[in-house]
Amino acid sequence: MYTFKPFVFTKHKANGPERPPKARSGHRIACDHRNLYSYGGFNPCVADTDPDMRDDQTWFASKPLFKELWRFNLVSERWKRLPGQENMPNELASNAMILCGNALMVYGGTGVPFGESCSNQLYVCNVDDGAMKVVPATGELPEPQYGQALVCHDSYLYTVGGTTGYEYTCDIHRFDLRKGVWEIVYICSGRDESEPRGRYRHELAFDGKMIYVLGGGTSTESYGFAEIPAFDLKTNKWRTLNTHGDTDTMVPAPRRCHGSVQYTDEKSGVTSVVISGGYNGDWVFSDVWRLNLNTLQWTRLRECILPCPVYFHSAALTPEGRMYIFGGIVKINNKIQRTNAVHSAWLTIPKLSEICWQALNYYFPHLKDSSPDKLLHMGIPLKFVQKFDFYDW
């Protein structure tokens, strides 16, 4: 019997004729109401004799990095590799990525060896056809780095932090999407004691006024969550915010390479951010935490535990409130390996119509093989029929 269960992870088994993506880490994902999109990634353990890859000329030119953009339909659970790799950069690990409409914006990243070749170019990819192009840019470009994080606000794209592989920053630059011009917002120089330490593989939250920096670290250090650096866009100043622990005074352990998503409650207007997994140099985490940005209260989602400890994965949230996690480095029976698993958990209670749609697909899994006309004739609302990727057939 179908039961809607929030905060419980479900594993998604890939369907369809196309092979799924290989296991990877250092990639980035994004979600809309219909698909999950995965860009780039790294896996040095794929054998040259792998039958799935031995005829893939793109892989042989880019290995151990994946010059790939994949689309995973959330209803049919079918993977589709999109064309357009000829215009992708060679820096394919630890990029920063954000989805705006049907435009996937990819910034920064590194090739291999890590840090030897870094990027400061912005790419835009059309998720409908995979077409990718460089965005022309002038102004004061940031230094080429990887492990940055992005926020999009008004017509600006903000990038925070990152590393060259040797030096770590928490500088802020922004790109005017209308004019194609980079501007310096804040360079951390030590003039203010609230300036955060340089870092990479952190995550950002944003409430419309302040950018919150969550965790991250260096190759030898991970930063914590009891105090959070926040940058006020109105005053152009850093602040250090003290957060409040869970009922047992706990906050998340320091970590880097974790996942992060955020959502805003429609009724209360409260924005919350949810972090998952991560790594501190010794320990791989499987816990999931939520931070209320209004009260700065941490809550450990004790019933919401990742299937196994994971880091260098990527997380994204659908507009309906379902968090998806793909790939990463997992720890199973004290062994470390990369994965290509897709898991999801509901973080909010969606509309009843969405729950009904989930139940319908549970009881009638063959719906994914029906034509749009047949689905509409059955009486299924158009907005749900449009969740399928029929052009992948």
TrEMBL record:
Pfam families from the UniProt entry: Kelch_KLHDC2_KLHL20_DRC7
One of the GO BP terms on file: positive regulation of stress-activated MAPK cascade
Keyword Repeat carried by entry: yes
Keyword field: Kelch repeat, Repeat
Domain of life, per lineage: Eukaryota
Keyword Repeat attached: yes
InterPro entries: Kelch-typ_b-propeller (IPR015915), KLHDC10 (IPR052125)
Name assigned to this protein: Kelch domain-containing protein 10 homolog
Organism of origin: Cardiocondyla obscurior
